Amino acid sequence: MDDERVLTVLVQVAEQMGFLTPMGPAAPLPPDADGVVMLVAFSGPYAGTVAVGASRALAEALARNLLAMDPTAPVAPSDASDAMAELANVSAGNLLPVLYGDGEYILKSPCTGAWPVAATMTAFLDCAEGTVALAVA
Amino acid sequence: MPLDVLIVDDNRIMRDMVARTVAMSGLDVGQVRQAGDGAEALQALRSGWTDLVLLDLNMPVMDGETFLREVRIDTALRDTLVVVVSTESSGARIERLRVLGAGFVHKPFTPETLVAEVNRLVACGRQAKGA
Questions:
Q1: Rounded to whole angstroms, how far apart are CA atoms A26 and B38?
Q2: Residue B27 belongs to what H/E stretch?
Q3: Rounded mean pLDDT, A73-77
Q4: What confidence score (pLDDT) does residue A32 get?
Q5: What percent of chain A is predicted at pLDDT more than 70?
Q6: What does the alpha-carbon distance between residue A26 and residue A66 come to, in Å, rounded to a whole number?
Q7: How far is CA B45 from CA A68, B7, B13, B53, B79, in A?
Q8: Distance separating alpha carbons of residues B7 and B54, to the nearest angstrom
Q9: Inter-CA distances, B76 with A131, B72, B80, B96, Å
Q10: A5 has pLDDT over 90
Q11: C-alpha torsion angle, residues A53, A56, A57, A61 (rounded to 10)
Q12: A53 has a pLDDT exceeding 60
């Protein structure tokens, strides 16, 4: 039930903010070692961490989309990280009211980290550009 | 008169994306500057004319709401148009921003949404000056 809501938010943010092409739920596998994981800590009526992880290919495609770059242009690692940071920030901001209702939350700036092992809710999404995952811990 | 715009967001890619949206929006835009947090944005406002600020909320050093309060108590800056562009969903916080005279656009946003909110605020500003 909760995972379905997490998936709905992930699809919405991937499409509307990232201009990605969602294809459907993916196998529940954490991002591989070469992937990018961004964590957003939140505090307020509830506290925790929202994590967004993606394959390197998707992170680079996201950066190209946000920067309106040529589809084959090389992407600097910092641009891929910044793009994923914004995806994490927007995902967190849109997910918290869906999960917990109206409330004032403080979101910390996104930082790189490891995929949370103890996530309570997760969603994994296949996109044409690669795989992206969203978790709450 | 073209609008001189200041884009305030701690994420460089987001600033670039908002700048591109503004450039393609059809709004009559003049100079576009960028700042990475509220403190930088205050410095930018005090160092050059700005008609419109597009403002993120969650930023290090000085957040967007604190920046907005600082602007509204500064007699030289208080009439600056501000549109908050944020993931914020708290009804209470959005109401506080509106009481401070800010417009609000929820991320993710479309160019049309941003343009509509800027135009609404510009019209309100003209009405207030004409009153």
A1: 39
A2: none
A3: 94
A4: 84
A5: 99
A6: 23
A7: 28, 11, 22, 9, 12
A8: 5
A9: 49, 9, 9, 22
A10: yes
A11: 70
A12: yes
Q: How far apart are the first and last CA of chain A?
A: 16
Per-residue pLDDT at A1 = 44
Residue A30: cis peptide before it, omega within 30 degrees of 0: no
Q: Could you report the per-residue pLDDT of B59-71, keeping only the tens digit for each?
A: 999 999 999 999 9
Interface test with A, best of B37, B87, B90, B112 (most A CBs within 10 A): B87
* CA dist., res. A79 & res. B85, Å (int): 21
What does the alpha-carbon distance between residue A87 and residue A137 come to, in Å, rounded to a whole number?
17
- Which residue, A23, A16, A40, is CA-closest to A129? A23
> Measured between beta carbons, which residues in chain A are less than 8 angstroms from residue B10?
109
Residues of A with CB under 8 A from a CB of B: 12-13, 16-17, 63, 66-68, 79, 82-83, 85-86, 89-90, 92-94, 96-97, 102-109
Mean pLDDT for the stretch of residues A90-94: 95
Contact A79, B13 (CB under 8 A): yes
> How many pairs of residues across A and B have Cβ atoms under 8 Å apart?
61
A98–chain B nearest CA distance, Å: 10
pLDDT, tens digit (0-9, with 9 covering 90-100), for B29-84 = 999 999 999 999 999 999 989 999 999 998 999 999 999 999 999 999 999 999 99
Query: Taking 70 as the threshold, does the pLDDT of residue B129 lie above it?
Result: no
How large is the average pLDDT for residues A101-113?
91
Distance CA(A66)–CA(B85), nearest Å, equals 16
d(CA B84, CA B121): 12
